[in-house]
């Protein structure tokens, strides 16, 4: 979950380099949307991030309430 919010550290320290070795999804979203002006691709990356986070949250919620009565 922490890697989804790791944009600022990567941008300040390495700007995604050397090459593309330190790019995360959040940095790639910024790079494709605001640097390359690939708005559709950046939007797709954003939606994929939302879906991944929603799946992870659902797994945590289900495991936290497993065996408990709501």
Distinctive features:
single chain; 70 residues; mainly alpha; elongated; cell membrane; membrane; transmembrane helix; Sugar ABC transporter permease
Task: Walk me through what this model shows.
This protein has 70 residues and is an all-alpha fold. The chain has one domain (2-64). Helices cover 63% and strands 0% of the residues. The chain contains 3 helices and no strands. It has helices spanning 7-13, 25-35, 39-64. It is elongated, with a radius of gyration of 16 Å. It starts with 6 loop residues before the first helix and ends in a 6-residue tail after the last helix. The mean pLDDT is 85.
Task: Describe the SSE topology.
Elements: H1 7-13, H2 25-35, H3 39-64
Helix pairs in contact: 2-3
Number of strand segments: 0
Helical content class: 55-70%
Q: Order of helices and strands, N to C?
A: HHH
Look at the structure and give the mean pLDDT.
85
**Which descriptor suits the 3D outline?**
elongated
How many domains? The number is 1
Structural class of the helices, strands and pairings?
A: mainly alpha
| SS field, number of helical segments | 3
Radius of gyration: 16 Å
Largest sheet: none
| Terminal CA distance | 26 Å
Strand percent estimate: under 5%
- Unreliable stretches: none
Tell me briefly what this model is.
The chain has helices spanning 7-13, 25-35, 39-64. The protein has 70 residues and is an all-alpha fold.
């Amino acid at each position: 979950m922490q890697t989804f919010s790791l944009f600022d550290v990567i941008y300040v320290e390495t700007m995604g380099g050397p090459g593309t070795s330190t790019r995360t999804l959040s940095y790639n979203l910024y790079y494709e949307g605001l640097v390359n002006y690939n708005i559709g691709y950046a939007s797709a990356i954003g939606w994929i991030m939302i879906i991944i986070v929603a799946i992870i949250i659902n797994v945590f919620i289900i495991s936290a309430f497993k065996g408990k009565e709501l």
